[in-house]
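Supplementary Methods, section 5.1.

A reviewer requested that the exact input to the structure prediction be made available. We therefore reproduce it here, unchanged from the version used in the analyses.
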Amino acid sequence: MRCAARLGVVGLLIGAVLASAGTACGDVVDGKAPSATDAPPLLPRDVASVRWRAPQGSKRLRRRFSVELEAGPVWQTRNDVSIPGDTGSRFPLDDLTGAGPFPYGRVTLDWRVSERHNVRALVAPLEISETGTLAAPVSFAGKTYAAGVTTRATYKFNSYRVGYRYELIRKPRWSVFVGGTLKVRDANIELRQGALTSRKTDIGIVPLLHVDAEWRFKKGWRLVGDLDAAAAPQGRAIDFSLKLHRDLTERWSLGVGYRTIEGGADNDAVYTFAWLHQAIVSVSYRF
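The structure derived from this sequence is encoded token-by-token as follows.
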């Protein structure tokens, strides 16, 4: 009896399996086509094999904001000045201040608004103030400064920027962004020789073209090139950096690299062109 009962149970199981297989293959059961509710249930191993795949780029949106702090020494290989531009003495300001190095840094905030749209804000203050002697008399901003006398020169060029960029190219290892930046320039050039002093200040807004390229050549490593630039008959502005980033965690990364800043203005009121070079160390935090 026990043996017969066991055989009966086995027979029922085999019949159920065959019926399920026939239903899954599209057989007609009791004159009806199989419906979705007739499909056999997923076994645990089948359930384990079904995985949800996040849409491409969704990981990027988990951290919408990032802050990067840059610092490092900066040198100048050119800093020519004439105030006014048409009648003042043209002289190398870096003969007074020296080539450097000088401390320099900036803070950048990035906000990924959506999958391909990004907004950036940047603060980059720079002020150099040193003493030296002029090789020849200099007419600067309406005053004349004698040669061979200790003279303090101050060069300030603070930059405040806000910009938008669009991810034009996205590949597994590459990303390219293009967009625009509005730069607020807060500049001041000043000479002081004892009680004699004069200066030229300038605050203005400059539109810049923005291009950014990122190469993810190895897991956790990124090479990033960043450019803000513009050119016109009255002058130009170029700010380019190339940095190597190492992701320490999902939130933190370190970077090293090089930045060059070149440009100036040439008009009746002012002639000034400078070329700066910076060695960069940066830390970034994503949140």
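The longest strand covers residues 196-218. These observations are discussed further in the main text.
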